[in-house]
Structures are given as C-alpha cells and as structure tokens.
Amino acid sequence: MKAITLGMAAFAALAALPAAAANYNVTFDTTSTLFGGPFQTVRSIFTTSDTAVQIGGQTAYAITGISGTINNVAITGLFDAPGNPTYYYFTTGPTFLDGSGVRFNAGAATNIAFFHQDNVAPDIYRINGNGTISAFGTATTSPATSAVPEPATWALMIVGFAMVGGALRRRHKAAARVRFA
Fold first, then answer.
1. Which of 47, 51, 136, 144 could form a disulfide with 34 if both were Cys (CB 3.0 to 4.6 A apart)?
2. Between 2-15 and 151-180, two packed helices, what is the crossing angle to 10 degrees?
3. What is the DSSP letter of 36?
4. b/e 116-127 (16+ beta carbons within 10 angstroms → b)
5. Where are the alpha helices (DSSP H) in 55-150?
6. Rounded distance, CA 117 to CA 155, Å?
7. What are phi and psi of 16, to 5 degrees?
8. Is residue 79 within 8 Å of residue 110, measured between CB atoms?
9. CB under 8 Å to 60, separation ≥6 — which residues?
10. How high is the mean pLDDT in each 10-residue block of the chain (181 residues)?
C-alpha cells in the first residue's frame, strides 16, 4: 500500500510539471531566383519556450534554439549578440516569423537572418547574411514529434511499474504462505 501511495505522489508531482518546450520543423526553399537571389535550402528545427506571449494580437513563443542545415552546412546555433531582441515563433496569424525573424550561425557564416518579407508577396520569406546570401522563397512549418516523453507520461509509467511490483510482491508472499502452511 505504501508503494502505491508513493507512486501516486510521484505521479501528481510529475504531472504538475509544465510540458517540455515545443519543437517545430521549418523548411525554406527558393523555388526561383526571385529578385536575383541564389537558390537556398534550409531544413531546421526551432525549439521554443513553453510560455506563450501575445504580440500584436498573435500568440508567440520565444525561440530558444535552432538546429539543422542551410545548403547542407550545419546550423551551429542562434546568433547572440548584445542588444539582440528575443526571436519569436508565431502559432497564430498569417506567418510563423515576423519581419524581425530569427538570426543564426552556420559554419563560418554568422548573423544569418531568416524572416518574413511583408512587402514582397504573401507567404514570402527572405534569408540573408554576411553579404553573400540573399534569397526569397517559400517556407513551411509543422510541429515536430518529440522522442522524449512528457513528464505526465513518465509519471504514469512509474506508477504502473510500482503497481506491478506491488502485485508481484503480494503474490510472492501469498505463495510462500501456502507452501509453509
């Protein structure tokens, strides 16, 4: 009985924890050399905070990490210079990035900017940086599936193991009493 009580306490404690940060798959492709920009391909995952904020009537989450590639060069992380604003991923509204976008590093290139280009056309994004990258194209995003279980899933699994262990222990004690009776 004590194991079940401890298991239930662990379940309640873990279930009360906030969900892990969300991940979003982001793909950017220039389908043409619109405005003379070279072909660019970005395959990335944005990691966001788990706390929503409202910006201009839209729900947004702070981008806390980035991984992936740009033209097969590994993205090494967010660009972090003094005075940089927080980068936001929007889950409501017409775009997932605003004109401020997100800045990141890849290989030897630093401060690569990826943002929504409001004044060009609907659903057009732009990537530029280091004076060598300047491309317009379309971008898509979708929630990434997580391989790490949520805290409530861990809690349920722990409670299940505790209950199975308790049942096996009771069965073992009952079998021992029958043998010695």
1. 136
2. 170
3. G
4. bbeeeeeebbbb
5. none
6. 44
7. -80, -15
8. yes
9. 52, 53, 54, 88, 89, 90, 91
10. 52 49 86 56 90 92 92 89 84 89 88 84 78 76 74 78 80 63 58
Query: Sign of the C-alpha dihedral, residues 24, 97, 90, 88?
Result: positive
What are the residues whose beta carbons fall under 8 Å from the beta carbon of 39, sequence distance 6 or more? 30, 33, 135
Sign of CA dihedral 46, 50, 54, 59: positive
Contact 111, 80 (CB under 8 A): no
- Which residues neighbour 101 within 8 Å (Cβ) at sequence distance 6 or greater? 87, 113, 114, 115, 116
The pLDDT score that the predictor gives to residue 31 is: 58
Write down the residue that tokens 């927080």 correspond to. 86
Q: What token pair was written down for 171?
A: 């069965």
Three-state SS for 155? helix
Q: How far apart are CA 119 and CA 95, in angstroms?
A: 13
Q: Is 162 left (phi over 0), alpha (psi -120 to 50) or beta?
A: alpha
